[in-house]
Amino acid sequence: MTDSTKPQFFLPPIYDSQGGWGPASDVIPQQFCDIPYAPYSKSDKLGRVADWTNPEGQKQDNNQTAGNRQGRTGFNRFNRDQQQAYGASFASAFAYTHNEDESSFSVVDNRSAGTKKQALKAVGGGNVRNNRVQNNNNKQNGGGYRTVNQRPNNNGGRYQQNNNNRRRYGYKDYDKPQRVRNASINIGADWKVLDEIEFSRLSKLSFVIPTAVDIGSYGSVNVYNKAYDRVNTKNEKMLTHIDRVKYDTTTSEDPIIQKYIEENKATVFATDSVLSLLMCATRTVYPWDIVVKKTADGKVILDKRPGGVFDFVTVNENSYDPPAESEKDTINSWSALCNEATYINQNFSRQVLDKTAHKFENPNPFATTDTQEELASCGYRYREFDLSNPGTENEEDKIQLIVRTEVDAAVQVGGTTNYVTVRALNEFDPTAQGAGGALPWKKSLDSQRGAVVATEMRNNAAKLARWAVQALLADAAQLKLGYVARHNAKDNSRHVILGTQAYKPRDFASQMNLSLNNGWGIVKAVVDMCLQLPEGTYIMMKDPNRPILRVYAVPSEEDLDDEYEEEEEEEQK
User: Fold this and answer.
1) Which helix (H) or strand (E) holds 106?
2) Which of 257, 306, 402, 536 could lock onto 266 through a cystine, CB 3.0 to 4.6 A?
3) What is residue 69's predicted lDDT score, i.e. its pLDDT?
C-alpha cells in the first residue's frame, strides 16, 4: 500500500481572533459573510443535537409541567420541542414555528361507534325516514310549540302528558304575538284627552275606609234555600231557566238618585257596579269605560252606558292565555263565554231561593203594575259614604257619596235577617283554549276544593274582586258562590250545579290580597279630579292594550247616544 492509497487525516486550521470571541473577520468563509451573527448570553444552555431516547409526540410528565408553571426553565430531554430564545438579542429571522401538527392527521376514522352515532345525529344523519316523520309531526303540531304527547322533563311537572294529542297552551307565552283588543267605545275625532293615569300610580293610592250610613232600602228579596248547600258532584242539580225581570237602571236614570240630587243630599252619585270597577281597576285586563257627568251645580254622576261591559260577566280575564277573541260563532269564544256566564249568573241567583219573601221599607222603585209579579229577587240599599279629607269641618268642603247597592237573598240566623249576594262561577271546557289550567270540576271539586278556588282566583281576579267589593258596599253578611259546569263540554245550553260555598266578604277579599284602602284611594282621586272639571260629559276609559286610564272630554252627550245606536245596529247585523 502506497502512501497515496492510505487513509489520511488532516487537522482543520484554527483561527485565532485577537479582537475577542468568535471567528476572525478576515477568515470568514464567503457563504457566511452576509449572515448576521447572534451572540450567546451567559444564561443560554445548549442541548443535544439529536435525542433518540424521547419518541415523537411524547408529553411532559406532571412534575415537569408543574415545574415549568412555577418558572423553572431548566433544560432536559422533555422540553427540547419548546421554542427557546438563544442570544441576548434574539433574531426572529432564525425562529421557525411549525403551525401544522402532522401527527393529528389520519385518513382512517378511528373514533368509537358511539361517537359516530352522536356525530350523525348532530348533522341530521341517521334514519332519514324518522326525520321526515318527525318534521311532519312538528308541522302538524304548530311548529315550535311543544306537543303534549312528548315525554315531559323533570322540572316540577311543567308539562303534563295527555293522550288527546292536543297542544298545551301556555308554553312559550313570551314568544306569542301581543293581542290587540279594540276599545270598549269608539273614540270620536273631536274628543280631547284631558289626563292619562298609569295603573302603577293608582296602585299606590290609599284612603281610610269611610263609614257607611243607610239612607233608604227598596224592593224585596227571597230567602236562600239551604238545600243547595248539600249539593255536590255526586248529587248535582240541573240549572233551570227562570224567567224574571230585574232592573239595572243607570245612575242618572234612577228615580231615587234623581230625588237625592234635587234634595242636594250628596255631591257624588254612583252604583255599586261602577264603584267596584273603579276600586278594582288595577286588576282589569279587558277594556271598559265609565261616563262622568258634571252638572251645573257641581254634582258628579258616575254612570254607565246601556249595553256596555257592565251588563256582561267576563270569563278568565286574568288567565295567562284568555279565551280567543274571534268573530267566528264558536261556543268557547270570548263573546260566547261572556253571554253564557251572564245567563248562568242570572238563573242561578233565582233558582237557589225559596218562595218566602222579605220586603224592605219601600217597594221596588222600577216596578210597574204589569211587572209586579214577574220581578226577580233584588233589594236596593242606598248608602252614603263620607269622602271628605280628614279634619274638614266646613260643610261646603265636605264630599258625600251616595251609592245604590244590591243584595240578592236573605238568610235567617237566630231570629235576625242577614243579606246575601249570590254569584256563580262557570266551567266551560278544561281542555279548551282559555281554560287557564283549571282542574275538571266534576272530578276535583269535592276532593280538591281549595285548588279549584285558587285557580279561579288567579284566572278571574278582577271579577271576584268586584264581587267582594259589591258585597262589602251592600253590607252583605255572606257571599254565596255557586259552581256551575256544562253538562256536556261541547254543549253550552245545558248546565249542572255542582256545589255552593259561602264566604264572608271581608275574609274573601283578604284571601285575594285585595286592599280596600287602595280601592277607596282610587275612588277618592277620581272624585277629586272630577270635581275640578267644568260642566259637561266625560269618558273615563281603560286603554284596551295598556294599563292606562284615560279621561276624554266629549263635546256633547248626543255623541254617546249615537255610539250606542251604532253598536246596536252592528249587533243586529
Assistant:
1) none
2) 402
3) 43
